[in-house]
């Protein structure tokens, strides 16, 4: 699959190391349809290609990606300017179970850069709000300065049909919000554990402990979904780069049902 | 109006403690209220209570001359605050400050300590429950220390 050229239409710096790109097709073809949770392979010409989740509104024609600059490709990406061209392959992978979640409570748990991959699911839940029970967002970051989408979080917090809890691992002077790991928020949120679907994204340790805490509250492993990260190359199940035990993260994931992968998560040789 | 005994017996911390012990615990309980920014307790002071937070939020803080007041953890509705009343030398190791208007039930630790010495079964029950909370807080602190959201090196 050859990358399609997309133009950088807008760049926003979210935090010191995280930025959002808005991309539009160079050929003007307007619609890019994807399901919440899917990702694109973004090719930075002459540097390399990385998998990045799609984080805009599923109904919107602009492609939105929020990325943290950690290494060679993402750092090159952070230096892009308006009008630059990137290559896009996708959308790839499995998606969040927004259909199975209908009529049930939904608990969305994000850690750090885990919020962008969950944002399209939140947009979907809010756009079809009547179809769901309680909707709760629990979000943990390193410090208050690392909180993404602050304005949007404030708007969401003001809604009566969405419970939003934010916490940081390290407070800074002047921070009056919560301090503590994101798992501590699980007991604070009001949801019916027997009728809940949970969606989690963050570092693997955070996802494991969050799932454990949810299960302690009575949520079944079959009702918990996580999004996994592995290095990728082809993105379409051919090269084996993203292998995770017997599974390929690009094709069988990135969104997995927790009971199907929980034993793999504790095998450190995988 | 909800009675203290009803509120306490419905809290997971006191689950299945038994009617007699619940009456005894209720005898050591009182409603308290802290205004925003009021200290619930100060580091170094005698620890003679613990609190069940009913509403509001409390920050556990340490003061460092270089960095000022550092919040280590925040606790909120349903959380149990304070276990220094149970362990010698019975003094607070942190400051606890109400971040919002906070209502809580204060339990007289001095009175409970005496009752636990007289009745080791009650002592064991309370210790088991506090060990569970301490275990949870230790686990959370370890995760905080891991700095999970930092860039991998
Ligand atoms: C399905 C999927 C979806 C993803 N979605 C997003 C997304 O929406 N936003 C986003 O920012 N990232 C996302 N990632 C992660 C992203 O793909 C990687 O950060 C990227 O591939 C790193 O490439 P690089 O060349 O910049 O860094 P590399 O040169 O490969 O790595 C450089 C250094 O960064 C460290 N590093 C690599 N990845 C990470 C990471 N994720 N977190 C912390 N440190 C890291 C490495 O250990 C290494 O030390 C996703 C990954 C997958 C598999
Ligand atoms: S990236 Fe090639 S098989 Fe998954």
> Would you identify the CATH architecture of the largest domain in chain A?
3-Layer(aba) Sandwich
Shape of chain B: globular
Round the Cα radius of gyration of chain A to an integer and report it.
Answer: 18 Å
SS class of chain A: alpha/beta
Tally of discrete structural domains of chain B? 1
Count the helices of chain B. How many?
4
Helicity level of chain B, as a percent range? 25-40%
Model regions low in confidence, pLDDT < 50 over at least 5 residues of chain A: none
Taking the sheet with the most strands of chain B, its summary is:
4 strands, antiparallel
Kindly report how far apart the N and C termini of chain B lie: 56 Å
Summarize the largest interface: chains and residue counts: A-B, 31 and 25 residues
- The CATH topology of the largest domain in chain A comes to Rossmann fold
Catalogue the unreliable spans of chain B. Answer: none
Taken as a percent bin, the fraction of beta residues of chain A is: 25-35%
CATH superfamily heading of the largest domain in chain A: Nucleotide-binding domain of ferredoxin-NADP reductase (FNR) module
């Amino acid at each position: 699959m050859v990358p399609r050229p997309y133009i950088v239409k807008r760049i926003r710096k979210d935090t010191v190391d995280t930025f959002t790109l808005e991309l539009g097709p160079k050929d003007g073809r307007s619609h890019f349809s994807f399901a919440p949770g899917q990702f694109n392979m973004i090719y930075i010409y002459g540097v390399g290609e990385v998998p990045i989740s799609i984080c805009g509104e599923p109904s919107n024609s602009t492609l939105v990606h929020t990325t943290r600059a950690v290494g060679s490709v993402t750092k090159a990406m952070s230096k892009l300017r308006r009008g630059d061209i990137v290559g896009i392959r996708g959308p790839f992978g499995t998606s969040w179970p927004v259909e199975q979640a209908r009529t049930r409570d939904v608990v969305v748990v994000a850690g750090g850069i885990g919020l962008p991959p969950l944002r399209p699911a939140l947009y979907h839940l809010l756009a079809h709000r009547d179809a769901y029970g309680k909707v709760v967002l629990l979000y943990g970051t390193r410090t208050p300065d690392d909180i993404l989408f602050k304005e949007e979080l404030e708007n969401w917090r003001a809604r009566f049909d969405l419970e939003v809890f934010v916490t940081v691992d390290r407070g800074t002077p002047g921070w009056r919000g919560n301090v503590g790991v994101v798992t501590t928020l699980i007991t604070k949120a009001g949801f019916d554990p027997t009728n809940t679907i949970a969606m989690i994204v963050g570092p693997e340790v955070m996802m494991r402990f969050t799932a454990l805490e949810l299960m302690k509250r009575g949520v079944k492993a079959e009702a918990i979904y996580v999004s996994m990260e592995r290095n990728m190359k082809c993105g379409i199940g051919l090269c084996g780069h993203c292998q995770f035990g017997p599974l390929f993260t690009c094709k069988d994931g990135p969104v997995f049902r927790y009971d199907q992968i929980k034993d793999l998560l504790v095998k450190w040789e995988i | 109006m909800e009675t203290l005994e009803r509120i306490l017996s419905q809290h997971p911390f006191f689950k299945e403690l038994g009617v007699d012990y619940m009456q005894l615990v209720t005898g050591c309980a009182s409603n308290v209220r802290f205004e925003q920014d009021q200290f619930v307790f100060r580091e170094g002071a005698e620890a003679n209570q613990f609190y069940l937070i009913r509403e509001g939020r409390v920050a556990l803080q340490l003061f460092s001359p270089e960095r000022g007041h550092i919040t280590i953890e925040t606790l909120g509705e349903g959380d149990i605050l304070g276990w220094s009343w149970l362990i010698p030398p019975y003094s607070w190791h942190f400051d606890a400050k109400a971040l919002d208007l906070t209502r809580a039930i204060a339990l007289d630790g001095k009175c409970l300590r005496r009752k636990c010495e007289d009745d080791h079964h009650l002592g064991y029950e309370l210790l088991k429950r506090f060990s569970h909370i301490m275990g949870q807080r230790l686990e959370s602190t370890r995760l905080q220390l891991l700095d999970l959201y930092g860039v991998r090196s």
